[in-house]
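Summary of Year 1 activities. Much of the first year was spent building the evaluation harness for sequence design. The harness presents a backbone, in tokenized form, and records the residue chosen at every position. We chose the following record to illustrate the format because it has been used consistently in internal testing since the harness was completed.
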């Protein structure tokens, strides 16, 4: 599964505020033995904008055959507008070779799995949370790149996504703590992850997980992309705002010049949803 973070942005070259844009996606997506990945792909058919993934895109091993046979018929029809992230299942294939071959230049540099891009007024950072493979600490190549990338950004709003969540009612991973430290220090607004096969939205928190309405980063776990759903492994945290472990879907983020809206879009036949709006720091 995967994870995300945001920071809001500047004016365009003409001096006007950049228009709102849509970023839509989820993690833990496609398998040849499931039909719910097609159900979530149909949601993407009706939602314009850039598609993201938070990892574990093609089960079971992230091999090129898994991508061609299982992901391509569903979410693959949106490949041309997709900015993906790596999950742990991708590394069941050595060096995540299937992932890098399938997505090509959109996946960043082979062997790394981290990159950034501008979307509307936002700076968007994609990270590789397979920390035992590539390193996530401040002195690792990825950690040094992240600090430099954020320092160079002029955007007011920043979003980041990757696979393994730091917090939540599933399998929180302290290995990604260095990401939170540098994102918080640079005023990021939102992180999106996968890995846990459910939906969970947390209140903005500081790097220690304590509520911080003024400068905190909101985390959304969006691992309901189609492969399966998990029951919550623990009671809701005090910082949990909304969670659901019974519904496949995608999360649509509308990124504006001064903030963002979020909307959980369920697959056909389901009724759970979640929506709201927040200003950037």
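For this record, the design step produced the sequence shown next.
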């Amino acid at each position: 599964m995967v994870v995300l973070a945001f920071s809001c942005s500047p004016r365009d070259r003409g001096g006007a505020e950049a228009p709102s844009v849509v970023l839509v996606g989820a993690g833990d997506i496609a398998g040849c033995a499931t039909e719910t990945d097609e159900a979530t792909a149909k949601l993407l058919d009706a939602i314009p904008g850039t598609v993201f993934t938070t990892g574990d895109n093609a089960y079971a091993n992230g091999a090129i055959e898994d991508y061609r046979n299982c992901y391509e018929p569903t979410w693959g029809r949106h490949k041309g507008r997709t900015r993906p992230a790596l999950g742990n299942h991708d590394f069941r294939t050595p060096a995540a070779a299937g992932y890098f071959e399938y997505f090509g230049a959109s996946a960043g540099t082979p062997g790394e799995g981290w990159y950034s891009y501008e979307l509307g007024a936002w700076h968007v950072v994609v990270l590789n949370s397979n920390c035992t493979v590539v390193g996530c600490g401040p002195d690792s190549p990825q950690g040094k790149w992240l600090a430099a990338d954020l320092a160079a950004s002029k955007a007011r709003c920043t979003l980041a996504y990757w696979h393994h969540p730091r917090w939540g009612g599933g399998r929180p991973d302290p290995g990604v703590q260095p990401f939170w430290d540098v994102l918080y220090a640079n005023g990021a607004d939102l992180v999106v992850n996968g890995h846990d096969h459910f939906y969970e939205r947390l209140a903005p928190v500081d790097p220690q997980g304590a509520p911080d309405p003024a400068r905190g980063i909101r985390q959304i776990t969006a691992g309901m992309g189609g492969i399966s759903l998990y029951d919550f492994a623990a009671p809701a945290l005090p910082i949990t705002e909304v969670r659901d472990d019974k519904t496949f879907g995608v999360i649509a983020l509308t990124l504006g010049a001064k903030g963002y809206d979020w909307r959980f879009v369920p697959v056909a036949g389901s009724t759970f949803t979640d929506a709201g709006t927040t200003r950037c720091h």
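The longest strand covers residues 259-266. Quantitative recovery figures across the full test set are reported in Table 2.
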